[in-house]
Design brief:
The chain contains 7 helices and 4 strands. It has 184 residues and is an alpha+beta fold.
């Protein structure tokens, strides 16, 4: 059995505990992360998934301290060194994505908000829709933002998607934001 390394992490900044401990980076924390990474890489296949999950958990906790201190960029940079791609959703402030040494920012379209329920999940669906089709990072962010924005225009998180005419019209109006065209 082969366990694939994690290559995408979607984070919602508001879900990371705001009461995280001091943001001071310590050598002990960095050593612990390095040790967990080495242990995960060397673990037998049966336990490798658990070891990687433990590593990601510890990295998110470490990153939470960076987020709590307001250093979203540093936290995303640190996480992207291990998981490859990190996307931090920041609501109406847009998203921050980090892939290796590249940083991307995407802003959502301006819409009248009826209900915030489902915005994050809808963003994830739109982002992943483009990501698995080989879309550029900017296209993934733009499509995620468009789908998230669509979600908030009607109450309940899914109502905007049920009305096919409304949904299709909204998507057509905003797909011009994609740099290389829609990938359906």
């Amino acid at each position: 059995m082969r366990i694939w390394p994690i290559n995408l992490l979607l984070c919602c900044a508001v879900s990371i505990p705001a009461c995280a401990a001091s943001a001071r980076t310590t050598t002990a924390e960095e050593d612990n992360l390095a040790s967990l990474e080495q242990r995960a890489a060397q673990a037998p296949a049966k336990s490798q998934c658990y070891e990687y999950a433990q590593l990601v958990h510890e990295m998110v906790e470490y990153s939470a301290r960076q987020f709590a201190a307001g250093d979203v960029e540093k936290a995303a940079e640190m996480l992207s060194e291990t998981v490859g791609t990190v996307v931090v959703k920041r609501g109406s402030q847009g998203v921050l994505a980090r892939r290796s040494h590249e940083e991307f920012v995407g802003l959502p379209p301006k819409v009248e908000v009826a209900d915030h329920v489902g915005a994050g999940d809808s963003f994830d669906a739109g982002f992943i829709h483009q990501f698995i089709r080989g879309g550029s990072m900017q296209d993934c962010l733009a499509f995620g933002n468009i789908v998230g924005a669509l979600s908030v225009t009607r109450p309940g998180g899914t109502e905007a998607f049920r009305d096919a005419e409304y949904r299709d019209s909204f998507l057509r109006a905003h797909l011009a934001e994609l740099t290389s065209g829609p990938r359906t």
